[in-house]
# Entry
Amino acid sequence: MARVADEKILVLDFGSQYAQLIARRVREQQVYCEIVRHSIPAERIRQLAPRGLILSGGPASVYEPGAPSCDPQIFQLGIPVLGICYGMQLACQALGGHVQSVPAREYGRAVCRVLVNDELLNGLPAETQVWMSHGDQVSQVSDDFLALAATNTCPIAAVRHRQLPVYGLQFHPEVTHTPLGVTILANFLTRACHCSGNWKLSDFAEETIVAVRERVGDARVICGLSGGVDSSVVAALLSEAIGPQLSCILVDNGLLRKGEAERVIAEFTDHFKTDLHVVRAEETFLAALAGVVNPQEKRRRIGHAFIDCFAAEAKRIHRAHFLAQGTLYPDVIESGGTTDGPAATIKLHHNVGGLPEKLEFDLIEPLRDLFKDEVRKLGLQLGLPEEIVWRHPFPGPGLAVRCLGEVSKPRLDTLRDADAIVLEEIRNAGLNRKVSQAFAVLLPVQSVGVMGDARTYEDVVAVRCIETEDFMTADWSHLPYDLLARISTRIINEVAGVNRVVYDISSKPPATIEWE
Ligand code: XMP
# Structure
């Protein structure tokens, strides 16, 4: 279902933690952008016909043996190239510059003095703040290059080749700590690559809808709904594309948040009017979990029960040929699943949907070109409510991995009530977007308390609120004390059987976001 965007930028990935961020920044300028492996041959680039290339940063040193490199012919294609940090060092080295290790490795903010306001630095003031993160820098360039900017410790902070359309930045324009980085990237896209910025999500939606219709014909498509953003947007998009040929399946496993199943059902029957199959499977899941305390075993059993329930329901849906999934672009890149993309990174993936290939459906993945922020925008365009579009991630195994120790209906109900209070208070405080995930955890310990004149011995609830960009690392949210006090008081007063609330102040790593 790959569409051909007429203006495309390729980011060559040299192992930078920022490669995806660069691609997002380019797309924010309405220019379509993909990430490819650093070793992509020049001939392949010529076939793909991008308007420009961006060489990402990377952790290596260009003069180390085995350092990731690029095909030197890419500089001769006539396609504008912007090298960032490692990418700049590589470009300069390939074209006659000299790179050396700097004694004081430079990390953090620096003041950048603009020497030449040419097309790349057009519109920048004489001095601007930039974000440096490097151990090497380009120390000398041949006369073929022109230095465009400098910092106190870095004489060549930005550079341009005099004959070839090759540019370099020693600092990172993609991060917010370089406030005018967006202007520099926009300059590269418009002034060097001559992109008009005509890539729009609405066009994407329209093209995808047409492509889905063509591919599906008169067959039926099944879409699993979890209540999460991705599956909701997929379902909304397909509903728009093929309407009555879409069947959605919601497995209510009894491990969802308070009111969650009802909200999803209302949205996809009242609003989108899809053929929604709700599998009421609470008892099946609770039976599968009885007596299990090991987190991995919980996950395994829930995974199996889910597949069984889903497959049984899918069998009842006639002429179902396709299965729609909410795979996103970062999943595609990180699993090494694109022809020209970088190799798979070693990352333990949570199996989000958990559906096996043996279901023998053809897959439809209409979001596989999009980043999460684009999926959210698309969701709003398709008419999904803010509440679904800005919903926090929720693990597939649901509350089972937040109900530490044995999972039972009464314990889940206690957790659900406490969790609903946490969410409500976070929303009322206007912090739902600032906080990336907020939830309650029911601990498998009891503690002594006093209520009135009586001693109590009741459950402990932990509250977990974190902030993160990518969920790989996270910090605990520094919530205001009065908010924490309200959450604690409400949980203890309103949730029977809880006499103590604690706040989790661990960051990831070394802790994980979930407790199990
Ligand atoms: P951790 O706990 O590993 O979580 O720091 C990172 C992100 O992944 C979510 N998560 C899961 N998602 N199935 C899922 O679909 C799972 O088993 C699972 N475990 C954790 C977690 O909520 C966080 O957003």
